[in-house]
Model the fold of this input.
Amino acid sequence: MPHHDIIFDLGAAFVFIALGTVLANRLRFSVIPLLIVIGMLVGPHGLEIGGFSLQLIQHDTVIELLSRLGVLFLLFYLGLEFSLSTLIRSGKTIAVGGSIYVGLNFLRGLIFGWLVFGMSVEALVIAGITTVSSSAIVAKLLVENRRTANPETELILGIILYEDIFVALYLSILSGLVLSGAGNITEIVFTTGRAFLFMLLFIAMARLLRRQIDRALNFKSDEVLLIVVFTLVLVVAAISEMIHVAEAIGALLAGLVVAETSQAKRVEHMIVPMRDLFGAMFFFSFGLLVDYREMGGAVVISLIAIAFTIAGNTLVGIIAGRVTGYSRRQATYVGLGIISRGEFAIIIASISLAGNLSPVIQSFTALYVLVLAIVGPVIFKNARRIHERIILPFYVWREKPKVGQNS
Amino acid sequence: MRLTLIKYRGETVATIREAELPGVGKKYEIVTENGEKITVVIHDDGVREIYHFNCDCDDDEPVSSVVLTDQESRQIGAIIQGSFYQPKALEQVELALKGMVIEWIKIPAGSPIVGNTIGKLEMRKRRGVIVIAVIEGAPEHDLKHDLRADSKINPGPNFEFRAGQTLVVAGRRSSVEALQTLIKEGRDTFASS
Done:
């Protein structure tokens, strides 16, 4: 392949990203799996039919840089959006439901990971990928299906909030395990402990210096604020990387800090475009690295994982819903509403790639996210029918008699 | 889920249930006197959704729903509030502006303020209420017409109140409500300072 200017390469990559985004928008389909598929088709392992090759885009340093920025801003945004006060205000129901859901669901993921990979880091990776749903897709589904007013939606969105906490804890453990190359138990405990300590110290310092940070960020000019925040994200990420905590965690921490300041809303407006732009590159570049010819080994695992996820998620959602006092149908909606997987699965998979874990994980994740992104919305749209035809006949959990209601 | 009791003239009129929808916005549920439920979802990006349910029960299919932009919701909100058209049936209408209200109060026969003057009642000084205008007779016709023909705008301290007049007063909600109690029920609840 002839050597082009970097702008030419970048332009070529973005032509495909733009095509994918436009197409996803037209089809009202989640953009994440579509970008991955397009990346797979035009990347270094791309489609070849006869003499015709679609292998147009290389995974070069520019693409890698932008995609890493994508992860940083996805997590910075997560931290920025995460609000402790909202979590506290949302109340006990959400706390109970969210903990039950995330706990049981992760357990389900661990069991599956253990069945496939035995006791290994890979098992933990698979558990993470199959546990965390896509906040973006779930929220979009609720809005599109006009279910924001329904009572159980509070629990669904609360669960997502708890998943965000889970992501932070999980990523710090995983990055300790994967990125530091720790071999034995003491090293694992040491690196994980260091990651936690770093997070705790960082959060404690941020809380202590909250007023000073608030004042320091109080720039009138958008330009200045943007550049300072961008720098903050990069610096915290770089420091984290230096002490073997995933740079993504660093970005998340930076987000948590900025979220506490009075500039949070302004920063959010600035960051969303960057998250979308670089995030798209991240999903696309993840696709570039996947060789669909090697997917054969992942197909069976993926399909089992998908079936296991749908069934397990539904069950766990119903349990969380019923325990917190929702009706049968509402509990079913909780279970069926959180099936879609997306950005976090891909982020976890890309960390495993950086740690040279089993390459099957890449293909597995691509397939898994793709299928669930297609199936998830279909399931949610038909939740009522699924509830009445499939779930209700199996019900052993009796409906609690409602006070003042004859049913 | 938080409960907010909306008080109107000291009476609880509606219970508004308020809930966080993390990542989406906020949700408000109001059960009307007729037993129907209205749910308003305010998205973080300004979009409002209004859902109408037949009852305050588990039925999850709304009778109808509307999606409004920020601009549209404000306009509709103003219409519902009565900023453009005051229903004739209502004797009193209030306009709320950041805790300040403008209220129409009709003086009933036998009210303790009948025969008193603005100055004697220390309306502005002690009660924190300004009488913007006094409309003679019932405000049943076009307001503008009434104000021009039979009413006094910005009456002075020597203005004497008579039964049947309607006062247009402005002030803090608490002050205006206290004045209302005085005019209608004859109880002087103002803190004497």
